[in-house]
Design brief:
Number of domains: 1
Number of strands: 18
Oligomer: single chain
Helix content: 10-25%
Structural class: alpha+beta
Strand content: 25-35%
CATH superfamily: Carbon-nitrogen hydrolase
CATH class: Alpha Beta
CATH architecture: 4-Layer Sandwich
Shape: globular
Order of helices and strands: EEHEHEEEEEEEHEEHEEEEEEH
Largest sheet: 7 strands, mixed
């Protein structure tokens, strides 16, 4: 970890790309982008959500379960090799086959020595038009976690988890200095003109608010491309991967329609400084929040 007069500088690398229908080609592309990110100085590299395929949840099709793989498995093995070679931390988002009939949307966390530190299984599973994830994914059962890596304490959540302040809070409470969000989100083309700006604005705003509320960095890696596996309108993924600082400020953002490797230096000392000057964690009324464990309060 490089130290400066201001603290501990770590370079994040977010991989934003389009995906083809060939899982092997997608893995090769992700590895190539990760190699380039490492060459540009990235120390923690994060893929977009489910990078090995196009976003198959646009339909409910049993054939798509063939895309899943075990963890550890071929993808984690390839990224562990890369992590050891370049001495980088990797967050790889995968479709996990845990057992017959049990599948998860999972992120593998690999340390800079190539060791598999653990996994995070997506907790919040959507079921919306063209986002039929409940058909494929069993809700996560590992809870919200943080891992101590060579380059800092990190937490990982996945896409739909982005909208839940409880998930970010519980991850930050375990010491996460950076929360990563592998993501696959975009517009329904027919809604883009009337709702597109508000939809994207809300997505960015809620994640920036997690950075403010928890005094941590937030890094979101999204895919690009217009995917139409069923014909019809499909989904136009909006890219715009970004990193937000500990006060919610946008430190860097990728474009909406181009493949990019977003390299962003962050100062981990700023987490301690922010949490000290804005002591939200200190002033939480934990004695008064019991209602959060209920669906509604009558």
């Amino acid at each position: 970890m490089k130290r400066s007069s201001s603290g501990q500088i770590v370079k994040l690398g977010l991989l934003q790309s389009a995906c083809s229908t060939d899982p092997k080609a997608n893995l090769k592309k992700a590895l190539t982008l990760a190699e380039r990110a490492a060459g540009q100085g990235a120390q923690i590299i994060c893929t977009q959500e489910l990078f090995r395929s196009q976003y198959f949840c646009q339909s409910e099709d049993h054939e798509n379960f063939q895309l899943a793989e075990p963890i550890p498995g071929p993808s984690t093995g390839a990224f562990q090799k890369l992590a050891r070679k370049h001495k980088v931390v990797v967050i790889a988002s995968l479709f996990e086959k845990r057992a017959a009939g049990i599948y998860h949307n999972t992120a593998a966390i690999i340390d800079a020595d190539g060791s598999l530190l653990g996994t995070y299984r997506k907790m919040h599973i959507p079921d919306d038009p063209l986002y039929y994830e409940k058909f494929y994914f069993t809700p996560g059962d590992l809870g919200f976690r943080a891992w101590k890596t060579k380059f800092g304490q990190i937490g990982v959540l996945i896409c739909w988890d982005q909208w839940y302040p409880e998930a970010a809070r519980l991850t930050a409470m375990q010491g996460a200095q950076i929360i990563f969000y592998p993501t696959a989100i975009g517009w329904h083309p027919s809604e883009k003109k009337s709702h597109g700006a508000n939809q994207h604005g809300a997505w960015e705003l809620i994640q920036r608010s997690h950075a403010v509320a928890n005094g941590c960095y937030v890094a979101s890696a999204n895919r690009i491309g217009h995917e139409r596996p069923l014909g019809g309108d499909g989904i136009e993924f909006w890219g715009q991967s970004f990193v937000a600082g500990t006060s919610g400020e946008i430190l860097a953002k990728a474009r909406a329609d181009q493949e990019e490797i977003l390299i962003v230096p962050v100062d981990l000392a700023q987490v301690d400084a922010t949490r000290t000057h804005w002591p939200f964690l200190r002033d939480r009324r934990i004695d008064a929040y019991g209602g959060l464990t209920k669906r509604l309060i009558d």
